[in-house]
Amino acid sequence: MSKNTKNQYFYELEKPELKKIGLKALEHVFGEKSVQLKILELLKKASFPKYLYWDKVKYFELPTEIGSPELFWKVVKISRNLESIRTPIKTEKGDYFSWVKILKLDEFLHRLDLNTGGHLSMFAEDLDEKKRLRFISNGIIEESIASSQLEGANTTRKMAKQFLLEGRKPKNNSEQMILNNYEAMLYIEEDLKKMSLDTSSLFNLHAILTKNTLSTKDIARFRRDVDEIVVSDNDGMVYHIPPRESFLLREMENFLDFCNDKNDEENFLHPVIKAIMIHFWVGYLHPFVDGNGRMARALFYWYLLKKGYWAFAYLPISMTIRKSPQQYKMAYLYSEQDDNDLTYFIDYNINKIKLSLKDFEEYIVKKEKEAKIFRESAIKKFQLNERQLKLLQYFQKNPEGKTFARMHANIYQISWLTAANDLKEMEKDGLLESEKMGKNKFYRPTTKIDEFFE
Predict the structure, then answer these.
(1) Is 207 within the bounds of a domain?
(2) How far apart are CA 297 and CA 122, in angstroms?
(3) Same structural domain for residues 339 and 284?
(4) pTM check: above 0.85
């Protein structure tokens, strides 16, 4: 078959009534079985382990029988369209976003469902309640910092974490943004996950996320056309023009119904996939003047915690997203530009969840190994509780560090009095020395802690 004939064939095949022919078209167009198998392998490569866009697929090494990269891309598009599933997310033009179940997705989601934490549970199920609370607290802190940094918060992770643990007032806009995110995550974990989402609770969450970082007239209200909001980078490149106010207001009702699982019996979606769609839908509608990215990621957590996926309270997904912010933007962009194919965004987020799980598993294994060695050494020398041992481990790695009662209490989720007693006992044993600074008594390590690490 000539190149022109092939192109004409695919032009005809793209007509809706002929799409049902599907991959059987390969036999008619390319003939030989060996060529068909090569094409099927290339189709797999285009979608797994990453769901690729034309800008990557066009560089594939193709058998000469296939012809041009453009022709193969048509095969890719036809294959994807045949398997696509429509979502309730609608564009302003009236088209719907759709998605494709990527290879091994069901297998991954099944593993994730086991004990509501997938293979993470083999570590998490052995954690006592105090450790579990500490991991949740750490996860919330890390998510608050990373999500804020994605939106421009200008501070290091170390400085931001210190500020949150000290419990002091924010000194600048970046610290205020991080504090807001932290309080929003706590609100979700403690209260909002038990509630349905409506306009009032959505506005309440937005008010927490944007407190003292946005003009009061723009907090807890939907954006208007006169606000002239566009999504762009620092160089002025526009990534997204949000839909008009009238469309936004109409679609918010559908969005809230989706969040609250209305019509779920007819159109069941796995909660992780649904949470990702909620994340995307907020980004697409862009309902607020500011804080949309933080809102999208916060509602991703809200939905999963509401559905009982407790392990996600440990996992700061934004930390892995922050490592590839450009890919995050492009996942939005590809989904909108490539025939409303939401699979790009779903695939990106699934891969980030996998990375977060892997990082957490490695973190748990590492911490348990360190703790075992340290605990055996410490027990021989002093009668210290688990919190005190952890503090000595911290000082061993950060000899210039310091702490005080409120900070110690925040880390271990204990009362101020218990925290103060921990520190006083360690000072009495000569492991810490104190210095009064303002209202707080700060504690620093002495050289005596070196005995634990000889």
Answers:
(1) yes
(2) 26
(3) yes
(4) no
